[in-house]
Amino acid sequence: MKMPVASAARRGGLSVVVALSFVLLAAPQVSAGVTLTPYPSLPMPWRMAVGGPQNHLFTAFLSNGTTQVTESTSSGDYLRPVSIGTVPLIKAFEVDAAGNLYLAFRDTSSNDTLLRKVSPSGSTEWETALAAGTSARDVSAGSAAIWLATDQGTTILKFSPLTGEFLGSIPASGAYVEALANGNVLASSSTTGITEYDPAGVARRTIPGSTGALDTTASGEVIAAVSTQSGASIRKFAADGSSTLGVDRGTSASIADLSVTPSGETWALSSNVRVHLDPTTPDAKLTASEAQAFTGAPVALDATGSFVPFASPSRFEWDLDGDGSFETDSGATGRISHAYDTPGIRTVTVRVTAPAGATATASTAVDVSSASPVGPIGVSINNGARYTNDPQVTVFMRWPTYAKDVVISNDGGFFPASQRPVGATMAWTLDSSGPERLPKTIYARFLGGRSGPETYQDDIILDETAPAVLEAGAKAPVASPRLTDLAPRLAKRRYVVTVRAVDKTSGVATMQVTSKKARPGAWRTYKKRSSFKSSSSKIFVRVRDGAGNVSRWKRLKIA
């Protein structure tokens, strides 16, 4: 096999510190487990890796044809520039657990691609030149070998991590590589997906798809960049090929590189943005089917948009009344519905728990309006009555959609007036009128409805004057001799009753005729002439007008 390197490894203690301008990051966009931090346009972030004893983040930048590397804490805070010697145009970049850096770059003077190992102190341990025409795409450091994917994407090269000596190659399709603890290597390809190869180049497993940069967690889970027609995303793959979403970067973004900490946190470079995914932290989202709802009507609450990178929320708890207590637990179900009995603005909050136990909350407001009774919009005094004898009346209301309050008055100019929350009924006092026949009008103006203020009115005749019985008499026909002889005290006689009554306002409506005022019996329709049976000659009558006013009793004159 032809050795694809131009020269043997070169060792030495070269240590060159490259001056680095401080890389000022813009304010991060934080969404719980996903943090997006924009970089400035220059220097351009090109590759990143997590490594070293403290799992720090190392980022390689390109600026004016020179590569610069920075070291940041595990939380992404800038620490210092890193000495790497002169590196013109970096192609690939890796940091091992000890903090050694492996850089594949193109030497602009010779146009060769070089692979260099730099110690944590900044000294060059060795440097190897690849064969002419061979360009690096990705590099990964294992305990037994340094794996390098070429731009050609058909061969993976293997080097000694101690000396840089070329150890051979395997025919494998992949533009990105990741060394595994078992000595094998993962290769990622946009056409064939992810394939695991053993050192001899035998494919051991394949995860299909269109994948790019990749890395693994301490437990062996594969996290990779995925490119589809719907855009670029970062996903975690299980052994069976199923995956869970880490972040979706959309159709306008690409993912140049990514690196994973042993705990599963993922760092990535995506279209000049540093992406940080924390799988322990959830992002809570909450929507309501109705921002404005009605009493008694269920409101659908949806928190299924909540997100945990590479996982799903394990628990949803709900504070439905805004009192700070999460009284409803829907388990792993992110949707519930709830109906409110009383109007008012409710602040609904959901508390989302990630599998690791961390929580996040999200809130939304639901403006609950009183549901109007069914029927045309308007007001009615005493449920449509024509007359009343009492200025204390009940106003029945049906209001416009979303109306909150009603201003009610006996004056069309609403002076004076009373403003109250809408309700199906409302007690109200009419202006007292005395004996005159005048309709009393109320005016109601509904506020807060969809169409703005709307005014309605109704009237009723207030009659506070009792009717009067002017004349009342009765004439009895001759009773049957046989009945009077047998039971003179029990025999009832049929009387022809004549009544003349008057009411100037609401009119005489009903009357009672009785021989016992304590138990007068039912009211019947007022008639000037009617019949009545009684065993007593003492007969009384009274009348009631349309407003409910009742006259005094009057004894009938028996003819």
UniProtKB/TrEMBL annotation:
Gene3D superfamilies: Immunoglobulins. PROSITE patterns: PKD. SUPFAM superfamilies: NHL repeat, PKD domain. GO terms for biological process: carbohydrate metabolic process. It comes from the Bacteria. Residues 1-32 form the signal peptide. Keywords: Signal. The keyword Signal applies. It comes from Nocardioides zhouii. This is PKD domain-containing protein.
